[in-house]
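Appendix B: complex inputs.
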Amino acid sequence: MITTTGIEALHGSAGLSTDIVLRASNVSVEYAGRRPTKAVRDVSLELRRGEVLGIVGESGCGKSTFAYALTRMLRPPARMTAGVVEYFDRDGESVDLATLEGDRLRDFRWNKIAMVFQSAMNALNPVTSVGSQMDDIFRTHRPGMDKAARRARCGELLEMVGIDARRLRSYPHELSGGMRQRVVIAMALALEPQIVVMDEPTTALDVLVQREILDEVERLRADLGFSVIFITHDLALLLEISDRLAVMYAGQVVEYAPAEQVATSPLHPYTRGLLRSFPDLRGERREMHGIPGSPPDLRTELAGCPFAPRCESVFDPCRDMTPPLQAPPRAWPVACHLHDPRYARTTDEAGR
Amino acid sequence: MSALTVTDLTVDYRQHGSRLRAVDGLSFELEPGQTLALVGESGSGKSTVVRTLSRFVKPSSGEIALGSVTDRRLSRRAERKTYHKTLQLVFQDPFASLNPMHTVAHHLRRPLILHGGHRRGPKLDAAVLDLLRSVNLTPPQDVARKHPHELSGGQRQRVAIARALATNPKVLLADEPVSMLDVSIRLEILNLLDHLKRDRDLALLYVTHDLATARHFSSQIMVMYRGEVVERGPSDQVILNPAHPYTQLLASAAPDPRLTRAQLADARTQRAQLRDSRVAEHRESVVDEGCRFRGRCPFAMEVCATRPPDLPAAKGAVNGSAAGHVARCWLLDESAAAAPAADSSN
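Resulting structure:
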C-alpha cells in the first residue's frame, strides 16, 4: 500500500501534474487452481494524465497480469480477488471499472483504455486486410460514421504512424514486423483513448525498428496527450522513456519512483540487481553479475521479504517480516527493510 | 593456429525457383581462447552461419576448415564424427533443446558414450557429475536425476552447455544463448561461457543481436547485415568508434541510461530528421544490388548503387582506428566522394 507521504514525495520530485487518470488500489489477482497462483498481490499505483508509467520486472512477476486487470481483460482462471480500479475522465467524473458490465464495459474499452500487445504477429487477423480490421473498430464503436468517413479516418491513422494509406488493402503477412506493430498502435489510438497500455510492444523487433517505434509513440503522445502504461523487462529502455517506474517482484511493487531517480540512485536491492543486469554499451569493462537464483513460487504464501533468498543485503528482519511499500524520509516508496527507519543502522549502508 | 577457418562462405536458400542469398562471401577465423561476436538483426543471416558451420545446411561455395578437417575430407564418416566432436552448439531456446522425456543425466551420457569413448558404469556417472559441476549445477547428484521441466530456464541452459562440453570440443557456437532467458540471469550464463572459454581454451562464436553483451564478452565483433559482414574489428573499436552507418545506427539506438532528458529529446529530434525524407516502408525494403543498407542509410549516395568494395580493400580507411578494424562502405573509400558526416556517432 502506498502511504500518503509516498505519493506526495512522488509528486514533488517528478514535477508533473497531479491530475490522475487511473488509480489502482490494493489490487490482487489470482489464477484459480488446486493451489491458486497469487500473481498480483495488493498492488496500488496511479497513472497521471499524459505521463508514461513504466512497469518492469522479470517474467512471472505479475506485470502483464496486473495490466490485464487494469483493462478488465482478465479471463478465467484469472480473477481479480481484491482492490479497486478507478478511471477519471477529463471532466472529473470517475468510474469504478469493476462495476462495468455489458454495453457500458464495451463502451469503455478502447474508447478510454486501449492496449498494444507484445506479439504484433498475432494481434492482427491474417485473413482480412488491415483496412477492414481497422474499419471494425469504427463500425463497433462509432456506428454513426458512414463508410467514406470510416475509410478516410483509417487512412489518416495509418499516415499518422508513418505508413502509406494505400496499405489499407494489404494483409498482415505483406507487412514487416515493424509495420505490423505500427498498425497495431494506430488501431489502439483509433478512438483517441486516454490511456494506452503497451505490453512489451517492441520486444520482438530489431533494435533499429524498436527505436523508431518508441520515437513514434513519444511523438504521438506529445501530440495527442494520452497516458501510457509501458510494460517490459528491459529496464534500460524503460528508464529512458518513462516518467515514473514501478518495479515489480513476485506480484508486488517493490519500488515506485521517478525514472531519473531509479537510474541514478535505486533503493531496492532488486532494482539495483536489474540495473546491473544490463551492461553499459559504452561503459568501462568490468566483472558483471546479474541476480542469482530465481523468483519464488507464487502458489505459496510468502513469509518475509520475497526477495530475501536472492538479496545480497539480506539481514535479520527480512526472513520473517514482509516489508511494506512505504517512503522513507525524502525518498520514494520502496518495499525494503534496509530503508525502514526502524533499522536505521543498516540504512546508511543501503545508501552506498 | 586458428581453431576454425571460414573462407568465402556463401549460402543460398532456394525458394519457389528463386534463390535467396542468406550469407554472402563470409570469411573469418576463430582463435582458441578467444570470443568472436557475430552481431546482426533477425534475418541478417547470423543463424544461417551457425547452421552451416554445424553442417546442418550445405554451403553453395566456400570452405570451412576445422583444424585438419576440411570439406574435401568430410565425406568420410570418421572425419564427420571428428568434426561434430570438435565443434559443438548451444542453442537459443533451452526449453526446446532438451528432450522433456529424459533426465539431465541421460542428456549428458549420450555424447559421452558416442564421442567420449565411455562405457556405462561408475566412471560414466562420475563424468556426468563432473560436467554438471563444471557448469555450476549443484548438487550434481540431484540435478542429474531431474527432468528438464523441473529446472529453470537458466539451469536448462547450463545443462545444454554441459552437454556441449561433453565431447570436449575445441569450438563452441553459441546462437543467442541468453535471449530467451530472464534478464537477471543472462550475465551469469555469459560469465559461465566466458570462464569455460578461458579454462578450456575454447574458440567461442557468440551470436547475438545485443551490442552491449557482444562488446563486454568478446574480443572481436563482426556486424552482419542482410548476409554480409559490414564491419569487423576489436570490440571496443567497433562499438565506441563505429565506421559503418549501420553500426553507428545500432550503437545510437541502444538505450543509454546516462543521458539526461534534454539529451534524449535532442537525440530523438535528430533521428526524426534523418528519417523524415523516407517513409517507413522504404526503410525496411530489401535491395539486392549495390549496398544493401542504402535504403535505410542516412548517408546514401549515388555510388552506393554499386556494391562497396570487399572488406580488405577498405582496410585502414577507418580514420585513426586500430589495425584490423574494417568496414564495407563507400564512405570509407578515399577514391569515392568526400565522406559527408561519417563521424556523426560521436
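The longest strand of chain B covers residues 18-30.
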